[in-house]
Design brief:
It is a single chain. The chain is mainly beta. The protein is built from two helices and six strands; from the N terminus they run E-E-E-H-E-E-E-H. Strand 4 and strand 5 form a beta hairpin. The protein starts with a strand and ends with a helix. The relative contact order is 0.14.
């Protein structure tokens, strides 16, 4: 669930002048503070976008990145030991073994 910021329109309560509330994207914005019942408004806040990950970072996080090289041929740029460098359509032995990477 996303976190939204709200600002007290009157005097702030123990939550402060601006506070955060986790709520569903479908939920209507809060009109009153859940703590003091004072009037609040939703404010636009800054957000962060993380930098693109390198192929090495993706590999360390357990992702597999395939880059199209030709019709039906993909290069596994996050290749792990024992995996084929290229995944070729119609050759199941070239498909990365994700069961080795992902566990319950």
């Amino acid at each position: 669930m996303p976190t939204y910021e709200y600002e007290h329109l009157d005097d702030p309560c123990v939550r402060g002048k601006v506070f955060e509330a986790r709520q569903s994207m479908d939920a209507p914005p809060l009109a009153t503070c859940p703590t003091c019942k004072g009037m609040v408004k939703k404010v636009i806040s800054c957000f962060s976008i993380s930098n693109p990950k390198t192929n090495s970072d993706l590999k360390d996080l357990g992702f597999t990145k395939l880059v199209k090289r030709d019709e039906g041929v993909y290069e596994n740029v996050t290749q792990r030991e024992g995996e084929s460098r290229y995944m070729i359509r119609g050759k199941p032995e070239t498909v990365p073994d994700v069961k080795r990477i992902i566990s319950d």
